[in-house]
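Researcher: Let's try something more involved. This one mixes different molecule types, so please make sure each is placed in the same coordinate frame as the others.
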Amino acid sequence: MSDFIPIWIDTDTGVDDAVALLCALQLDRLDLKGVSAVAGNVKHENTFKNARNVLAYAGREDIKVYPGAIKPMCIPLKDASQVHGSDGLGGVIIPDSPAIKETMHAWDAIYQCAKQEKGKLQIVAVGPLTNIATAIVSHPDIKEYVERILIMGGAAVGGNATPSAEFNIYADPQAAETVFQSGIPVIMFGLDVTNRAYLDGRDVKDISDFNTKISRFFTDVVQANMNFYQSFYHREMLCIHDACPLIYLQYPEIFTGQKAGVYVETQSQISFGKTVTDLWSDTKFAKRETLVILDADREAFAKIMKDLISKYR
Ligand code: RIB
Ligand code: CA
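Model: All components are placed in one shared frame. Result:
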């Protein structure tokens, strides 16, 4: 049996998505079968372009990137350009990928890949879940072919897009609810863990000191995020939210979590997009199948990320 883990990354390529892609390429147990773009942090034309260009910048233009949803399933797109810049990469310019532009829709490409991988494919979704939900709705038998879905999204407690909702879920709650209730095993990497698995100023400096093409790109592209965290949270910290599910796949031992029921609020105003999670409730949901990741060894996470970026020459 192969030791490699076949994965698919669905991304709204913004700053932390870009770093997560760079990490994925250096995680030697992962076999990245394909990437798809979704509207989220910024418009789809930018997320599609960014995913293609970041892979090419890392020398991996061979990995195909498929176009996906240009808006959420039921509501208008609300982006996060205030965090990622209007282009999604904090204004950092990198060359256009020489790869041909794929035209197959993300949801069809994901389904095709899942069937090819005969049930072993793991989907890593690090943007709004529009493409994944569309794949489930368009190809109901996909659940026979996907081993599990690792989601950067949600929060058992708190939020960032609003006080009660995390951006990826808030951007398309109907899609998220479709995915959470699909019957495909889900691991949720919410803000509970991604806000704890942060890089501090020393970690960012260590990466900057590598002084390579990719480390310089990392330093430049995260600057917008660093400024945001400094101004918003008054701390020298950097959350690479989207790297968490990818690093988990190779280093699960540095994370902790527990099973819970997770349902997405799609009706309310004030808690729209909240991942209602029954972790600390006397009354539990009947279905409690989602593995909710709650914490990580921050030092170990930071060291792993630095090691991965250091592999680029
Ligand atoms: O809330 C953080 C998530 O929203 C990350 O995936 C980030 O890239 C944005 O999409
Ligand atoms: Ca993202």
